[in-house]
Design brief:
Length: 150
């Protein structure tokens, strides 16, 4: 699913009258934020663009397909930010894409002033998507790993 930049939607709203809102909401339904579905549609759209299968994402992120599916569809909500980051890494999300996914899930975006987040940002910018390789970067700096110890 191709995303429409927010500024393009803003442009549509600029000269819109209230009687045109229903048409706008119908035409742009897939692009509008929906607490429950926004994350799923965005996440799935990025994966489709990159031709990455959800089942591969679950496996790479270290979760079962059943659990991963519940998290991504938000049937089950997690407070584990690292899990969402691992799912994004598995989907080869860019820094911007990862921040958007975190925000849609209701979590804090990666923050440059946070040392751990800074390490993750640099790794992603360098196209390092392997959570264990990122763990090495984090541990070398005395920071908490992304993955759980088995």
């Amino acid at each position: 699913m191709q995303q429409i930049p927010t500024n393009e939607l803003n442009d549509l709203l600029e000269n819109m009258h209230p009687d045109q809102l229903d048409q706008y909401l119908r035409d742009n339904r897939q692009y509008l934020a929906d607490e429950k579905k926004g994350f799923y549609y965005y996440f799935k759209g990025v994966l489709d663009e990159k031709q990455i299968k959800l089942k591969d994402v679950y496996s790479f992120a270290g979760v079962t397909e059943s659990y991963g599916s519940k998290i991504i569809t938000m049937e089950k909500h997690t407070t584990d930010r690292d899990l969402i980051i691992r799912l994004c890494l598995a989907g080869h999300f860019s820094w911007i894409e990862m921040n958007r996914a975190l925000k849609l899930y209701g979590m804090n975006e990666l923050y440059a002033k946070d040392p751990r987040d800074a390490c993750i940002i640099v790794a992603v910018k360098d196209r390092i998507f392997d959570p264990y390789a990122i763990d090495d970067i984090l541990v070398e700096r005395g920071l908490a790993k992304l993955t759980k110890d088995e």
